[in-house]
Each structure stands twice: as structure tokens, then as C-alpha cells.
Amino acid sequence: MKDRKTIIVSNRLPVRVEIKDEEWNYHQSEGGLATGLGSMFKEGNNVWIGWPGASIPDQRIRQIITRDFRAQHLYPVMLSPEEIEHYYDGFSNDTLWPLFHYFPSYANYDPEDWEYYQAVNQKFADAVLDIAEPGDIIWIQDYQLMLVPEMVRRANPGVTVGFFQHIPFPSYEVFRLLPWRDALLKGLMGADLIGFHTFDDVRHFMSAAMRIANTQSNANEIVLDDRSVVVDAFPMGIDYEKYRDNVLNSKTKRNEHKLHQLMGDKKLMIAIDRLDYSKGIPQRLEAFELFLRDNPQFREQVIFLQLVVPSRDTVKQYATLKEEINRLVSEINAKYGSLSWQPIHYFYRSFPIEMLSALYASADIALVTPVRDGMNLVCKEYIASRLDKTGVLILSEMAGASKELYEALQINPTDKQAVAAAIREALLMPEAEQIRRMEALQQTVERFNIHHWVSNFMEKLNEVKHKQEQLSTR
Ligand code: GDG
């Protein structure tokens, strides 16, 4: 088709607007998705639809901002504070997020949140339908927009719809707790291709579709009355070159130098997470304490730097988690620290990328121990930043990344003894062994990078569509 275009849809646009009084600024996202899709959405008539990150009540400012965005192929969907509260903070982050990360006791089932979720999904679908023409490809991102595929297909059956979920899809036993499970499955099955990070997520989705929606399936294909839906794994990668090159940046070098001054000849172990109960931060601190208790010879020898990026801390569970982390850090530091050594350096804020890169480049060990994570990109960024190929990654079996990164020291994050033992093993690992593992990890992360992920998904989507077009013309 001649003018066929691609429309990306995600909760957030890759550019965010920040408004204060009558003034506003635009901020480019440095996230993986923005990088991976960055070149695609700017081509031809392609566009990216999403929320610009702020409520803009003033009609005049809204118009100016919309015009500025559109000039960059960005279509803002404006959301009111109530919509953000119920669709985003509520249903997305207080219902789907905990449930899909296996924290069902944290999930809140509020019918009002669900009403908003449906309405806002319809708003996103309408934005797509405003510009979509038969033959266009629409790629919808993540759990905030699970109803959009079906809403778009129903109104415009001629388009091709892909959906990718960045967080885990839980076991049927957990998913079925959702009062609105049928509607969500139906929403997703409006897509031609549904992607997850891992084959386990695929299997869980297929099982939920079969047992809740009574679908028939054929291998990884759901067979509906008039069409089929392909479900597959597309493990997301990072912009490998960017993280590798960042290490050589002069700002990164300066930060690295400062870190070395702080560290002296001590070993550095790092962990970087958003504040979230799925990231296993308290369990990791407790495992570090166990390590210090049982390995007194390593005291004064290692510094653990934990960076937590603020997130959702007005929500009760997050505020409690933040307090628990504060308490654990101060208890461990008070118990084991000395005048010349503070075991844990804890930061609750975000750092510029040049500081992140300096941390990756300086760290002898990266501890990535979520209790549940769709993929986890921090561990891949650490690998890409290890220019001399030393360093040890300790990785949770519960992160999607564990399905690719076999040469990491893999642990069950709730097994504190195992995490403590892995820290010891990492500190004692001979350099040759570190390099052997890191080389293999780098090969995987470099090859299956963000560009591979985008082209792999798009190729599959084109292939699925092509097959369906052939079937319909027979
Ligand atoms: C979801 C899924 C999946 C962190 N601190 C700073 C900073 N970061 C950047 C990291 C990394 C990103 O944030 C975090 O990505 P993750 O993948 O670890 O986790 P989520 O945000 O939970 O993302 C996850 C991902 O989607 C992609 O599909 O892997 O499983 O939960 O890129 O570098 N960046 C800067 N300063 C910081 O202080 N600049």
C-alpha cells in the first residue's frame, strides 16, 4: 500500500511537557522505547500518540503545545487530573501493576477506576482512529492500553494492530482474580500480534485466553471465528552502542574519577531501581546484611551503593516501602559501619545518565534482584558499560532478562542465603572467569539490542498481516 504509515501508541509520549505558571518546557525521554522507536516515528507520515506528561487546563496553551508536538510527529492525548488519578494511578498502577507482578494482596479492584480505564482507553483509540487508514500499522504499548487493540479493530478492521506488554503476564491463577479479566482479554485479542518479553509470559497469556475466553489455539496462535492472533516472545534490548559510548564521555569520566576517590581500593557493588515493591530492595538489603554478618573478612572491603529513583511515593505501599528501606539502610550502617567505612551508600533521587554510566563502569558487581520484573534493562546497561569486560552480574531468576543472560550468577531473590553466597562468589571470582562470562553476556546484549527488538516485532507483524491478507483473498 502506497501511503501506509505506522502509528505508535503508548501511555507517555517520548517528549514530556512541564508547565509552571504560564511557562513550559519540553524534555526528551532517554528511555529505551524512545530510542528504539525514535527513528521510526519521525519517518514519512508516521506518528506517535500518547499523553504529554502534564494536565494542560488552559485552552490557549494546550493549542500551542499541541501544534509544537504535531510538528514533531507527536499526537498528544490530553488527560484531566481525574483521568490520571483513576486510569493511571488507579487501574493501571494500583490494580494491574501489583496483580501482574504477583502481589495480589496489593491490588485494588475499584469499579470507578475501571470506568475511567475504559473511557481513557477509548480516548486513545479515538486518537488513533482520527488518523488511521486501512493498511496502516498500529503498535500499541503496554498494560495501560490493553483495551485499545479491540477498540481500534472494531471501528477500522482494515488496520494491522500489534501490542507489546512490557510487564509480566501472570499465571492464569493470578490473572483470573481480576473482576474485568474477560474484557481485558477481549481487548488484547483485537491485536493481530501480541508480544511479551518471555515465553513464560506467552504461555500464561495463552492459558488465560483458553481457560477464561474459551479460545482455541494452535501452537502460539489463537484461532478466532474470523481471524487469528499470534502471540510471541520479543525480549527487549537496549541501545548497546549508546551505553558503551557513554562510558567514554568526558562527564562520565569525571564522575568515574570522583567515585574512584571515594572508593580507594574497596570493591563497589551497585543496585539501581525505581522505588517499587517488585524490585526486591528490602530483601537485597537483608541479604547484604547476612553477607556482612557471615563474612567479617569482607567488612571495610566493599561498599554497596543503592540508588532508588523516586516513584509513586504518595501511594501507601510505596511510602511504606520507602520507610522500610530507610530503616534497613540506617540499621545496617549503624551496626556494621566504622569511622572509616559506611557499608551502604543510599540515594533516593535520579541521576543524570553520565552518573549512571560512571556507576556502571566503576562497579565490580551489579546486584539486580527484583522479585518480579518483565525484563529489566539495568542489567543490560551494566553489561554494555563494561569496556574492560570485568565485573559480575548477580541476577534474579524472576527478571525476564534471566532467560537470556545465562552467564550471570542467577539467584532466587527471596533466598537471602543464596544472594549472600553470590555476593561472596562475585567478590572472589578470578578475573579470567569474570571476563569469560562478561564476553558471552556482551555478545548476547549487543546482538539482541533495541534495534533488533523493533525490527523483529515489526517484521513479525508484517508477516502476520501478509498471511491474513492472503487467507482473506482466497
Ligand atoms: C518496565 C518494566 C522492562 C534508572 N535510574 C535512573 C535512570 N534509570 C533508567 C535505567 C533503565 C530504566 O530507568 C529502568 O528500566 P527497567 O527495565 O529496569 O525498569 P522499569 O522502569 O520498571 O520498566 C521492565 C521495561 O519496562 C522495558 O520493557 O524491562 O521490566 O518494569 O533504563 O537506566 N535513568 C537516569 N537516571 C536515573 O537515576 N537517567
Account of the protein in words:
- The chain starts with 5 loop residues before the first strand and ends with a helix.
- It has helices spanning 32-41, 59-71, 81-100, 111-131, 148-155, 172-175, 181-188, 199-212, 240-246, 250-263, 281-294, 316-336, 353-362, 378-384, 416-428, 431-447, 450-473; strands spanning 6-12, 15-20, 23-28, 47-51, 74-76, 137-141, 160-164, 193-196, 216-218, 221-223, 228-233, 267-274, 302-309, 344-348, 365-368, 392-396, 409-411.
- α9 (240-246) crosses α14 and α10 (250-263) crosses α13.
- The strands form 3 sheets. It has a 9-stranded mixed β-sheet, with helices on both faces. It has a 6-stranded parallel β-sheet with strand order 14-13-12-15-16-17, sandwiched between helices. The protein has a two-stranded antiparallel sheet with strand order 2-3.
- The radius of gyration is 23 Å and the shape is globular.
- The model has no long low-confidence stretch (mean pLDDT 94).
- With 474 residues, the protein is α/β, with parallel strands linked by helices.
- It has 17 helices and 17 strands.
- β9 (216-218) and β10 (221-223) form a beta hairpin.
- 45% of the residues are buried.
- GDP-alpha-D-glucose is lined by residues 30, 32, 166-167, 236, 272, 274, 309, 350-351, 353, 356, 373-378, 381.
- It comes from Taibaiella chishuiensis.
